[in-house]
């Protein structure tokens, strides 16, 4: 069986979009293209939970087929890796459920199976999660209010690469920030199997005033397309670099 | 962190009510809540007049993964490593929600820290050897504990035995650690990968015994490795084991059997040292570390003795 690649956008933000199209709509578009959109909303220690910007977090993840989580700065590391892994399992389970429906009829899903069979299927899902290839495009909100959180975001991302690189499957990460200097989104770190080297890049990030979440997700979606094209030329080389 | 996962069943599961399985039709009388974790809540229940622990959650996926782990641990030869699994089923609540639950052996015991505080530090060696013995069995059969932490262990009576109460993080060797807690995770301390290998558990092993003396945990500091070494040095009760613990932290042991062997050697050497010291002392009548040596020697005797006893049981 050929192993598939799971594609995810991981959006890290602390508030509401205020420029361009509806981020939930662009997230839905990305999901249609086989890209899952996960969102992590960082709360201020003083935040009460019903802030409108943080409600957007859930909406984006829902239409992006992904997982969302609100979190205080302090527990960002554990949340980032948990959300990513959970979304992977969710995606893989989605595949498996689709297959099951084809075999067992449209009304059947994993929950309708008895616990023993469910256990066997979960073993397969876990195997896939361990061995599949994963591509994560991290989209970091660098609007002014994020300024004091960027250091924690950096640490959380290094930690994420540590968790995911313990898997058997291959990983690729890239980081983009929004708003960019002239565009809606700007490349911070190009596709790479590891994130250890981002320490030097992160402090240079400057924060801007607007939050064009929707356009940034759209732009991120195109980045996956670009890379696939490029990679088809360099595939062998990439294989060597991993080994 | 994932509060929304257990909020739901918390409002539906109450002491005094019955939970009946959808598939196997067994009935469980809920007695009281024992605790809540990231995935679900555990209740003390009664089945045919006997106590058992029932874990329930609306996250069927994670529950299935945990059950798979419990089942594979049952296949490990020799000692019973995790709690014994009694039943796995689903429950449809009166409000129409679907839950997954499993029922396991109810282990009644005391937290490691509380036990050592009451019964004394001479138990440290006993529990270290017991834990290494169990880890060795687990590693030999191709698994790693993963989320090894004080909260997942318990001292049961009698005789005192350190048992594993939550084995949900158990991962096949060579894969990515499934579940971890930052304080016990070598990745967090910048001292290794999150790949499931025996040395991952041995790092957490040291943190378990450090946690006994630092129940509030401590910060990483600018140099995490130096912080850990200093914290070990600062606990007097850990002095006899210092050498072995430090080696485990920096990943010098590739197997728990190696670490166990060195720990036993160390304990014996201390005892031997004590004997020769006592002899020299009686001849020279010099002031020496006799009381300390005696203490450590007695401690070794007790540790090895209890350890042998636990092997027989």
Automatic annotation (TrEMBL), chain A:
CDD domains: vWFA (cd00198)
Signal peptide annotation: none
Pfam families: VWA, VWA_2
Protein origin, superkingdom: Bacteria
Record-linked InterPro entries: VWF_A (IPR002035), vWFA_dom_sf (IPR036465)
Domain VWFA: 1-92
Protein name (database record): VWA domain-containing protein
Organism: Oceanobacillus jordanicus
